[in-house]
Amino acid sequence: MGVVSWWFNGGDSDAVILLLGDSSKSLVPGQFTYYFGVGPLGLLAGFQSDYVGKTFGLDQKESENIVNSQQGDVLVQLDQGIKFPAPSNHTKGKLYANVEDPSGAAVVVKGGGYINYLTEKKLPMLSEIGLSAKFLKLEGNAMSALDYVADGSVAICYIAKGSGRVKVVGSEGKPALR
Asked: 125 with 91: CB under 8 angstroms?
């Protein structure tokens, strides 16, 4: 299985974190598999800043900042003045969720796979950062139906392991990626 997490030390003293986990079923068995959104190893580092700006509705300066400002890979020091949202009363009780748990799946197809959604209902802190997640696990020789985003929302897709084909089509019915 797997876990997605980010950690932030908002205090004035050092934090020590010990992570223990089973990595026998990782992408590389025996090693933790890391995925980064930004920074030198991040997904967005592979795109030009003007594309990131158009995708996320940012001006040129903001998009360049997102693509180029984070120099650290795993650990980063935040600039002075950057504040993360403090946990509110409704988020303090639950700061984690397992999106891979098939027992709570929204859609289950026997022999095909399952889809889980992680929204603010399962993880209340998501309402403060404006994110949600969709986890799709396909069995061999299965496929997922079309996804359609009516409001122009942004989606980042990360394929952890396996093989297959992804096709993106624009609003005129022509391939958006070649």
From this structure: yes
